[in-house]
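pasting for ref. prot 1 ->
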Amino acid sequence: MKKKTKQVVLIALSALAGLATSCNNGNCPGNSNAIPLAEFYQDGSSVIINNLTVYGIGAPGDSLILDEASASSVYMPLHISTGNCCYVLDYNTEGLEADTIKLEYDAIPYFESHECGAMFNFRITGIEYTLNAIDSIAITRTLINNDDVASIKIYMQ
């Protein structure tokens, strides 16, 4: 009976080890999330915005992304089922109203591989924004995948 118990334990441990190695994502991209990266510019050069608060409306978790921080860029996560997300950029400066950015997009399911599984890419189809401190916004890459590159340029006044 003890020999049978040892065999069951060995089989269970072997199965767990097999599961652990089958979930290995060593061949998967380091960043498996497709999240747009927005960079800030002023007068043609990258700029740091001080005391910036960024939060989402209709974004995953409607979460606070930055809280009174200095940033030259910000990730803007997209929700796979809504087709649009809004973000508020609050400059925490008296007399300067916050800006709102609305991204419209299509979620595109993408099967990476058996090891990595499925993920979503996004195609930006439209953008609307206010002009309180923002001068203009350029979408430099409409297809958002897991590449860690800026796809949105926010030009400040």
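and prot 2 ->
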Amino acid sequence: MDRTFGIPTPDLDSKSLLITGGTGSFGRAFVKHVLEKSAPDRIIIFSRDELKQFEMEQTISEKYKERVRFFIGDVRDLERLELAMREVDIVVHAAALKQVPAAEYNPFECVKTNIHGAENVVMASLRAGVSKIISLSTDKAASPINLYGASKLASDKIFVAANNISGSQDTRFSVVRYGNVIGSRGSVIPYFKNLIENGAQSLPITHPEMTRFWITLAQGVNFVLSSLSIMNGGEIFVPKIPSMKVVDLAKALAPDINHEVVGIRPGEKLHETMITIDDGRTTLELEDRYVIEPAFAFWSNSHLKSRDASAVSENFEYSSNNNLEWLSDSNLKKLIIEQN
């Protein structure tokens, strides 16, 4: 279950980083990790909620505070992004509207943030001369059936294609795509734990066969950093992570509580896919991840071949129900403890 993603992380000493959506679960973990492991010149937390920025600022040690900047702004605002990205070396794009039901009922807002916001990050990065930009995606972007997934697929396409318009400019864009994050705000584990702590007599299960990919925040941070280290521009990086049935997750958290099948919510899949059969034709496999290659004439995979990357098998598909690795009850509990 070790998922340290051992590719060396990039040298972030004396670098300036900006993270959109930086007050979210991933942003907090990312900033904490970078401050403790590196000596960046500054990290800019770009987000639109001043209360979350204030609360996050209180958690940062005094010895790191001079390196952290809080910048109120929305990825929908191109001018504000351009202002924030001045003299920035690396951008991690984590801002998104992520709740599937909310996106289904508020489609215009989802499109403005997830699609137009992605376009704005690309344009601001190009104009500011940022060196590397990596965008956080989701398993729901592969063969999407809900608006959140479709908007993130559009975002992925925008970031991959951005390498075509950067030209000779030293600005490169890549994407990381992974599954459900254990313990992140709004995810099913904190939801179940809250119900259990408040004396729930049953836990709501959407479907007894539903499966999902699982990764911890720390693993997600390590994966993003290691992908930054090896990116050449245009890749979609997908980690090798375990799957688990949602009903088994509920049993592991509360073995003595009954389950109530409530049905699949609007826009929800029974199983998630991170690499479709069609994407499999341009996918390389490394020891700890898969890499979906861009279809660019100028793109070279020599940097991956040097790491012993190989083509996946014919008709390869990476889905939560056909995964070769499954999360056990004991490992789930261990990861929850580590997460806390």
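The chain has a mean pLDDT of 93.
The radius of gyration is 20 Å.
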